[in-house]
Design brief:
By secondary structure, this protein is an all-alpha fold. The protein contains 9 helices and no strands. It is 74% helix and 0% strand. This is RNA polymerase sigma factor. Keywords: Sigma factor, Transcription, Transcription regulation.
Length: 188
């Protein structure tokens, strides 16, 4: 999500309490947020739900944006977290369904689409990583999902560059093991 300087300026103004800037900011970022959510969630309706959750999270938490890094970096993190939360919620709902309830109207993407299935498997692996080693999950999200360079990851996490690289490497090994050899190497 590369945002122009006008959007970055709107974010700084919104963080300072300018409600008009916040409204304009939300309008400008909506399409980018939806695109990002669609990369993580295979169904358009789920991506739309995550997008709305992200916009709401931005509106509620814009005051926490300190401007140390670019707003686009902060937005990537919020968007990814909201998409992962939406996925976990949907997964929990599906597990809670009983046998007498109406069957799910959607086809199982793991059987229908290789791309959708691998995205869901990746989200499962990320969820497991976050539960076991949250510090590794943060670094991996910043590097491989938000596509920050190593220096930006280190800066965002407030850790030395070597530590950031080590965490990313360890996280990739963990996710690779969780996904298995059938997927090849999921990260660059």
């Amino acid at each position: 999500m590369a945002l122009d300087e006008t959007t970055e300026d709107l974010a700084r103004a919104a963080a300072a309490g300018d409600h008009r800037s916040l409204g304009e900011l939300l309008r400008r970022i909506e399409a980018d947020v939806l695109r990002h959510c669609s990369r993580l969630l295979p169904y358009h309706q789920d991506a739309e739900e995550a997008c709305q959750d992200t916009l709401l999270a931005v509106a509620r938490n814009i005051g926490r944006f300190e401007g140390r890094a670019r707003f686009s970096t902060w937005l990537h993190i919020v968007t990814t977290n909201c998409a992962r939360t939406t996925y976990r919620t949907l997964k929990r709902r599906a597990a809670e369904q009983t046998a007498d309830e109406l069957p799910e109207l959607r086809a199982d993407p793991r059987r229908v689409s290789v791309i959708a299935g691998s995205r869901l498997d990746l989200l499962d692996a990320m969820e497991s990583l976050e539960a076991d080693k949250p510090e590794l999950a943060q670094a991996l999200v910043l590097r491989d999902i938000c596509q920050l360079d190593y220096n930006e990851v280190a800066e965002q996490l407030g850790i030395p560059l070597g530590t950031a690289k080590s965490r990313i490497h360890q996280a990739r090994k963990y996710v690779q093991a969780a996904l298995g050899d059938a997927y090849g190497r999921p990260f660059a």
